[in-house]
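RECORD TYPE: inverse folding
INPUT: structure tokens
STRUCTURE:
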């Protein structure tokens, strides 16, 4: 085997290893619970039915421990968009944590006024309670 083939084999092995580690990390961070969402007056409360009652994990953002995982924040935002009029043809993206608030991008899923994948706003989700704090709309000119 020449050096070029060895390098290609190593690159492919590293890519596969990174993918497996990413998948395992996401699986571990996902919370194993059944959620029901109650939406009233543009606020969303999440009721958790824990499968494993000893599973009291929290995520640290460097300043304070938060109770809601990024996956849960995305799920809350997705349910909120689905139940709120005017947000058809959109989906929740991957959240980012700023302080005690998750900012979940709102992405276009069907081409119309904007291209598919365009971020047109953010759903703000409280990282402690899971309550939707509102929507920030991005003005695109």
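DESIGNED SEQUENCE:
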């Amino acid at each position: 085997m020449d050096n070029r083939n060895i390098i290609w084999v190593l690159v492919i092995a590293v890519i596969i290893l990174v993918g497996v580690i990413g998948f395992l990390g996401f699986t571990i961070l996902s919370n194993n619970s059944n959620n029901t969402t109650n939406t009233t007056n543009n606020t969303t409360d999440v009721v958790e039915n824990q499968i494993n009652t000893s599973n009291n994990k929290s995520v640290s953002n460097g300043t304070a421990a938060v109770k809601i995982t990024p996956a849960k924040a995305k799920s809350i935002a997705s349910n909120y968009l689905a139940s709120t009029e005017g947000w058809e043809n959109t989906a929740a993206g991957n959240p980012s944590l700023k302080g005690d608030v998750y900012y979940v991008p709102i992405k276009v899923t069907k081409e119309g006024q904007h291209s598919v994948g365009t971020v047109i706003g953010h759903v703000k989700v409280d990282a402690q309670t899971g309550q939707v704090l509102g929507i920030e709309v991005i003005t695109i000119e």
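NOTES: Residues 31-137 form one domain.
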